[in-house]
Amino acid sequence: MFLPKYPDSPTPAPAHTHTVADPAAPVQRPAPQISVTTGAVAAVLVGGVVLTALLAAVAVTAISVAVCAVVIRSMLRDQRRR
């Protein structure tokens, strides 16, 4: 059941042909191609803008909460002194 099944007649290995390169000829290597679409650039820009806006919103909220806390603390301290 778990024994491997071999083909009835094995196929011969393909013959490899080797050519000798000319040592005087320069080596031609394909240049890497990077294709960046406008959609990808737009997505990165929109994502950056959204993340920056969220960070600014969090910073403004934190500052306003801190100011409110200081004002409320000051008001409560003044009421205790009276």
Distance between the termini: 93 Å
Estimated helix fraction: 40-55%
Q: Would you tell me the structural class of the helices and strands?
A: mainly alpha
Beta-strand percentage? under 5%
Describe the largest sheet: none
Q: Mean pLDDT across all residues, rounded?
A: 84
Enumerate how many helices there are, as a single number.
Answer: 1
Low-confidence stretches: none
Q: What gyration radius follows from the Cα positions, in whole Å? A: 36 Å
* Silhouette: elongated
The tally of beta strands, per DSSP, is 0
The string of secondary-structure elements, in order, is H
Structure description:
The protein has 82 residues and is mainly alpha-helical. It has a domain at 40-82. It contains one helix and no strands. It has one helix spanning 38-81. The radius of gyration is 36 Å and the shape is elongated. 0% of the residues are buried.
What structural keywords apply?
54% helix, mainly alpha
Summarize the structure in short.
Helix content is 54%, strand content 0%. The chain contains one helix and no strands.
Indicate the topology:
Blueprint: H1 38-81
